[in-house]
Amino acid sequence: MARTSTVSLSLADAAALVAGILRRAGFGEGHVRALTETMVAGERDGCPAHGLYRTLVCVHSLRAGKVCGDAVPVVHDQAPAIVRVDAGGGFSLLAFEAGLPHLIEKARAGGIAAMAINHCVHFSALWPEIERLTDAGLVALACNPSHAWVAPAGGRVPLLGTNPLAFGWPRPGGRPYVFDFATSAAARGEIELRRRAGEAIPEGWGIDAGGHATTDPQAVLDGGAMLAFGGHKGSALSTMIELIAGPLIGDLTSLESLHHDAGAGASPRHGELILALDPRRFLGDDAPAHLLRAEAFLDRFGDSGARLPSQRRYEARRRSLAEGVRIPAQLHVELLALLE
Amino acid sequence: MARTSTVSLSLADAAALVAGILRRAGFGEGHVRALTETMVAGERDGCPAHGLYRTLVCVHSLRAGKVCGDAVPVVHDQAPAIVRVDAGGGFSLLAFEAGLPHLIEKARAGGIAAMAINHCVHFSALWPEIERLTDAGLVALACNPSHAWVAPAGGRVPLLGTNPLAFGWPRPGGRPYVFDFATSAAARGEIELRRRAGEAIPEGWGIDAGGHATTDPQAVLDGGAMLAFGGHKGSALSTMIELIAGPLIGDLTSLESLHHDAGAGASPRHGELILALDPRRFLGDDAPAHLLRAEAFLDRFGDSGARLPSQRRYEARRRSLAEGVRIPAQLHVELLALLE
Fold first, then answer.
1. CB contact (8 A) between residue A301 and residue B247
2. What is the least distance, in Å, from the CA of B305 to any CA of chain A?
3. Coil, helix or strand for B182?
4. Is B231 part of the contact surface with chain A (CB cutoff 8 Å)?
5. Cα angle A273-A277-A278, degrees, rounded to a multiple of 5
6. B288 at A interface, C-beta within 8 A
7. Measured between CB atoms, does A7 come within 8 Å of chain B?
8. Chains A & B: contacts with CB separation below 8 Å
9. β-pair type (B269-277, B139-143)
10. What's the pLDDT at A161?
11. What is the ipTM of this complex?
């Protein structure tokens, strides 16, 4: 029964716990704040894989010397429509915050703008960043490489990361249309969980070392490779992310990031690309009318029985804001141990 | 045997045939040239669905009054990083050409820029347009809605188009990395072909009118719906395309386009969004070094047994430039009839 024991925490207590651990581990105050906000938001929105559990990963990365705990991001005005932020080997979140006002300003001035975050360590979901841009009334896209665990369609060698892609469209009432998905067929953690449980994985998640389809998680994790979602199309999309959030911004591909890690098991180190588009510059005075058409389009999803990808997250958020969050008791014990 | 009879044409003869038909049908000279180039390129690159066969569709659309044959595109300098082209109800290709120099100039000036093509009729593959941008050393993305034939994941009502997404990355030697795929699991024409042949379709291509998975092409085409590739991820991507190449640029969603067609069976009428990113503005003097890193990354695909998505097209192109193209004899007869 111990496996299912949980501890209930208010969001404020959860934040205090995470912040205390990060501070004690040696993170600078800016990073403590940005990391805490993002991990509590993940737990709050029903995504424990990006929730409090990640505190352990952050501390591990710092202790392993794979992240700089007090890096100060440096913002560069790279071009009229490009802001570049050097994260200085710190986690990406503080760098994102440092560049955000410049990205918003450039998007509003030119209609579209890009932010490149360089030399960051990345572990977080992209939707909290996407929501910062939709809050500003902007359309947003974000992506980054990760570690090279995924073989391109038809290949047998892992060349691609799990490479998340996220998109946001502003909607009234603070509930933007947002998706944020890995371009791998499944999360690596999910395959790891099946391996531990001795369960098979569905076909399409991975191949063995010989390049053959397999349902054995062990074969995928040891010498095999994960696969992209959606066959050659997902694989192409993941390749695009390697290019535009790798060499295009002067940063590492997933393969280079994995080499850089050198077996330490820390979070991937690389860059991130964020695009922001301003409907008001695309549409001028007609913007309100066309945004209403988008509302009519999105409203049809519910009528048709389909869920919008952000819906489940907003439901979890509403629950958590009222009731707090529940985390596994074992995780709570591990977190408390980091305070001692 | 008649079914497999073919006619061999040099590329010059193929171009003369298509141009003659379009001219006779009443297209203006600019449209004749742009349409001919694109359809011959499709046939040349081993993609007959975007090849000479499309001449029939273009003529049908003109006769049905669904496209303006002599529309003159009007270019608007919408914002520092946005060029907008009003296609005036003509095919998209001439509008793309009219806006292209402005898009290139804006991308080089600001680092990233967008082109919105409005009020166009669209039938063509996106990769010929992508290649125009990679030829200029730019990274490119393009997408457009189509007709609402695809149900979002979990839904049973078609709200999405087959919504193609295309991407290009410049490479030395004029062979850019390019993908161009429909976000539907399969092309509508492919389902139509299976229906005619009395064959089943694979699972995952469509649902019947009750929203249930089916392998019966007839059930998909009559009251059912096609599905997106890659489940909820492909569906989310397709929804993004509806938004950014629909309301964001003040143009029709796939559902609105289908209503506009009103059963005429013409090509979809809507807009198209193209993004261009300049590696030289992202990277400055370091651009050549990082582009070489991208080459090293892409070169690994061949070594690993994976094909790059553009490879097959370039092989077909090389063959066609040497030997010309072969089209079905029946299609040749139908084309010749349009010259009479």
1. no
2. 5
3. strand
4. yes
5. 150
6. no
7. no
8. 238
9. antiparallel
10. 95
11. 0.95
**Contact B111/A167, CB-based, under 8 Å?**
no
> Which pair of tokens denotes residue A336?
């408390």
Topology given in CATH for the domain delimited by A2-63+312-337: Hypothetical Oxidoreductase Yiak; Chain: A, domain 1 (1.10.1530)
Q: Which CATH class is domain B2-63+313-337?
A: mainly alpha
Of all residues in chain A, what percent are helix, strand and coil, respectively (each to 5)? 50, 20, 30
Per-domain residue ranges for chain A?
Answer: 2-63+312-337, 74-184+228-283
B 25-84 residues inside an 8 A Cβ radius of A: 78-82, 84
Report the predicted TM-score, pTM, of the whole model to 2 decimal places.
Answer: 0.95
Secondary structure (3-state) at A82: strand
Handedness of CA B38, B41, B45, B46 (dihedral sign): positive
Contact between A183 and A238 under an 8 Å Cβ cutoff? The reply is yes
A-chain CB neighbours of B253 within 8 Å are 293, 297
d(CA A273, CA A252): 12
pLDDT tens, A180-198? Answer: 999 999 988 889 989 989 9
B139 to chain A, any CB pair closer than 8 A? The answer is yes
Q: Residue B149: list chain A partners with CB under 8 A.
A: none
CA distance readout (Å), A196 to A27, A221, A222, A328, B137: 32, 12, 14, 17, 48
* Number of residues in chain A: 340
CB environment A71-87: b (16+ within 10 A), e (fewer): bebebeebbbbbbbbbb
Interface contact B236, partner A, CB < 8 A = yes
| CATH number of this structure's domain A74-184+228-283, picked from the four choices 3.30.980.40, 3.10.330.10, 3.30.1370.60, 3.40.50.720 | 3.30.1370.60
pLDDT per residue as tens digits for the range B128-167: 999 999 999 999 999 999 989 999 999 999 999 999 999 9
Flag if B281 and A78 touch (Cβ within 8 Å).
Answer: yes
